[in-house]
Amino acid sequence: MSEQTVAEDRRRPPVAVVVLLLTALLTVLLIAFAWPAARSQPRDLPLGIAGPPQAVTQLTSSLDQAMPGGFEIKAYADRAAAVRAIENRDVYGAIVADPQTPEVLTASAGGPAVAQILTQLAGRIGAQQGVAPKVTDVVPLPADDPRGTGLAAGALPLVIGGIAAAGMLTQLVRGGGRRMAGALAFAVTGGLALAAVLQFWLGSFEGSYWANSGVIALSIAAISLTLLGLEWLIGTAGLALGAATMMLLGNPLSGMTSAPEMLPGGWGALGQLLPPGAGGTALRSVGFFDGAGAGRPLLVLGCWLVLGLLLCAAGAGRDRTRRAVPARPEASPVTV
């Protein structure tokens, strides 16, 4: 065995250290993806109640006893006002407090898990009052995807697309400007492709195809440009840090499989400040609610896009500074 081989073996970590690192990585992945789902339940979930003040007070008290802290109640004068609030994404659903014909209004397009909870809640109300409420889905999911699995599953490819774009462009394309152009071009083509599959093949979307593809493209661009900028400034460590943030925080905390208000603690709010969560919320709003409630998530995506551009600009500026600094001339030998 050569001395070089021996030196290389000495620099390598022991097998036990590698096993421990792999175990830690596996544990982190499990916690990141399983913990939010396992602890999912309503937490200050916006819910409307339509009816006279006395009925609203009684129902609010009953809901607080059934699910303490589960709902943030908003009162509405009548059913029509509650329906408008659902369509404007002010609430996820509503209860029409009519003693003769009680009704529970849901919006499965806004979150199938929330609609299921409200449907179960209707059964409890019927058992208490002796009259089974009618359940009406005000904004339903498409008939081709009644459980919303396509939209929920589409969150992961969106994140992976942004990460893969940054990684491949960094390795295969020279020049920061060309990498940025490639990331933007891929965001457009990726948005068009993903929206076409989800809307025309799987039937998971409604609304304008161009608006849906635009939201997806903005999400991919926000992720890929941010990672490109981090790699430009910090190197491989920056790319790895950004990718881990998007994958281990952004994707599990996006609320795509339930709702941000159903995630533990303030993690749902954090998830909405990251591109995967903001992109998913904006996509629901544009695809099913005519853009209602899309303002804030689109602003978040825009901020991430600007951050990515600024990081790339900082990386380009640093490169120009390094090239502008002249190399030190070698000292000439002194002759005696």
From TrEMBL:
- Recorded protein name is ABC transporter permease
- What keywords does the record list, in alphabetical order? Membrane, Transmembrane, Transmembrane helix
What are the TM regions of this chain, as residue ranges? 15-38, 150-169, 181-202, 208-225, 232-250, 298-316
